[in-house]
Structures are given as structure tokens and as C-alpha cells.
Amino acid sequence: MKGIVFTEFSTMVESLFGEDMLDDLLDATDPASGGAYTSVGTYDHKELVDMVVELHNRTDVPVAKLIYTFGEHLGRTFSEKFSSFFEEAGNTLAFLKQIDNHIHVEVRKLYPDAELPGFSYTEPSTPNEPFELHYSSTRGFADLAEGLIQSTSSYYNEKFELKRKDWVEGEVHHCIFYITPIEATEV
């Protein structure tokens, strides 16, 4: 997993729980990397999982909520650091459509060894059906993806009803996000 994920997780922990909490997490989990993360490094994703579980143990915040919150944080960071992707897309659904065939292509140019989740989508066949975003990964971070989706919709000031269906096949975690726009109503 790329180091930017670890450095941003550290930033989130410090901002929400304080520097001491981050130090405590690193001491308790004793990561193989030593916990000295750089944004361009590559680290075992299990180090992140271990820190999230330890953070849950120390705060009683559910693991899924911590991962979702991190997804929201990461989405805000990405919208600042990689604003051209967001500006180019223009809205949430257009952005989600270009994850695999544009954004991840560019990420792989910068980080050829990056192990990225797979995303595909299904357009609704009628106006009443939701847009479906399909996620697959051996890492099982659908909660992170959901936080990223929420952060993206906030960036564009759009609202969606979001439902999901999760399942595992072998070692691959799958999720379909059913995304339905909520029309703004005038008061």
C-alpha cells in the first residue's frame, strides 16, 4: 500500500485523537516498517489494519466507522492534492466513472507497483434506478471506498442515497454501491 495512505492516516489520527494517540498506536502495533512512513514508500496494508484495530480498542469507535472516516479524510486530501481530476470530472458520478480507466491509470504511471482496488460501473437503464459502482479488492476496504464516495459528493455539493451489497469470493472482497441522486427541493 502506498505511503500516502499511511501518512494521511497518521494526519487524521493526530487531528482527531492527538499526537499521543498516534504514538500509542505505533508502540502497541510495532509495525515492521517502524512506523516511519513516507508518502512515496510502499508498506504492508496489514500495518494500517493493525493500527485501525488498535485505535478501535482504545476509542470504542467501530472499525468500520474508523475506516469510513478515514475514507472521507482521504477524499478531502485527494481533492486538494489532485484537484485536476475533480475539476475535469465536474460531478460525482462522472468522477466515479473515471476511477479505473483514468485516475488509476495515472496513479500507475507514478507508482507502477501500486496495488489498487478494481472499480467498474453500471449505468441505470431507467431514471428510477441507481447508478451502480462495483468495487473489488483483496484488502476489503469497502468502508474506505464509501467514505471516499461521500467525500467526493461533498466536494461537488451533491447528495445521494447510498446503499451497498458486500460479499467475498475466495480472497476477493466485492461491494456494489447503489448510488441514487437526491434531488434538491425548494422550500
Automatic annotation (TrEMBL):
One GO molecular-function annotation for this sequence?
Answer: heme binding
List residues of the Heme NO-binding domain.
2-163
Which positions carry the signal peptide feature in this UniProt record? none
The protein depicted here goes by the name: Heme NO-binding domain-containing protein
Organism of provenance: Brumicola blandensis
Lineage of the source organism?
Answer: Bacteria, Pseudomonadati, Pseudomonadota, Gammaproteobacteria, Alteromonadales
